[in-house]
Description:
The structure holds two protein chains of two kinds. By secondary structure, chain A is of the alpha+beta class. Chain A has two domains: 3-61, no CATH class; 71-171, Rieske [2Fe-2S] iron-sulphur domain (Rieske Iron-sulfur Protein, 3-layer Sandwich), CATH 2.102.10.10. Chain A contains two helices and ten strands. Chain A has helices at residues 3-22, 27-61, and strands at residues 71-72, 84-88, 95-101, 105-110, 121-123, 128-131, 136-138, 145-147, 156-162, 165-172. In chain A, strands 1-10-9-4-3-2 form a six-stranded antiparallel β-sheet, with no helix packed on it. Chain A has a four-stranded antiparallel β-sheet with strand order 5-6-7-8, with no helix packed on it. In chain A, strand 3 and strand 4 (105-110) form a beta hairpin. The mean pLDDT of chain A is 84. Chain B has one domain (20-86). Chain B contains three helices and two strands; from the N terminus they run ββααα. A two-stranded antiparallel sheet of chain B has the order 1-2. The interface between A and B is large, with 37 and 49 residues.
Amino acid sequence: MTEARERAAARPHDRDERWRSDFPYDWEADASVSRRDLLRLAVITSGALFAGTLLLSLLGRRDDRRRGSPRAIPGAAALPAGEALYFKYPGEDDQAVLLNIEGTGFVAYSQKCTHLSCSVYYRAEKGELICPCHDGKFDPRTGEPTAGPPQRRLPRITLEQRGGELFAIEEAP
Amino acid sequence: MSAGPSPDGRYVRVPAASRRDRPVPGREALLLGALAFGLMMLAIQLWLLTVALELYLAGDGERVWGLAVGSGCVFVGGLIAVWLLSRRPRIGA
Ligand code: FES
């Protein structure tokens, strides 16, 4: 065998040795320590998940998610059965829809779709609240989703009849 | 053996303390089992959190506390498991 060949045969071993000296490590100790560390990390993650759930439960107990103050809805009294009226509530930039449903009476919802916040509108001929963005549908009587991606009901606006006028009282999720 | 580089300077010796921390034979399996069970519990906790978020956004926030109690039980269980596993059994006592 020539000298060059001998050198070539020895090269992989050299490389391995160089690698070991560059990154010295006790692999045996590594296996057992990392499992224990992983267990600790899992408990820390568990604590974080618990903290998140606890935070949501505390936030859910607060009542400040109801919005708006009593305001008359102009033109509501003249709304015929089976028709919809769009109005602004609770703020001037918030859109809402009032429905006069046969057999149920007046109901009102925020127009903000619970999927990705597109504007929901009422399709009278089908008797459905429709979101055009992804074909979401809501039951006009309850505001519950009936088709498409939305999973939560529309925020409901409570109504009150005061001296011949219909008032929006507040919006609740 | 003490901590520090080996005489030829190429390997780092593991400090004596971490060698002591190595589980005794048979405990590795226990640790692995606890880890597998713990990861399963983490998945359940993650699911509880998503249900809680869903309820919160839907305005049913009052019902979330039950989920928080469940998640808390898993967390406390994890703490107890870590405490139990970090105790070294007395061998041959
Ligand atoms: S935004 Fe309404 S269905 Fe997607």
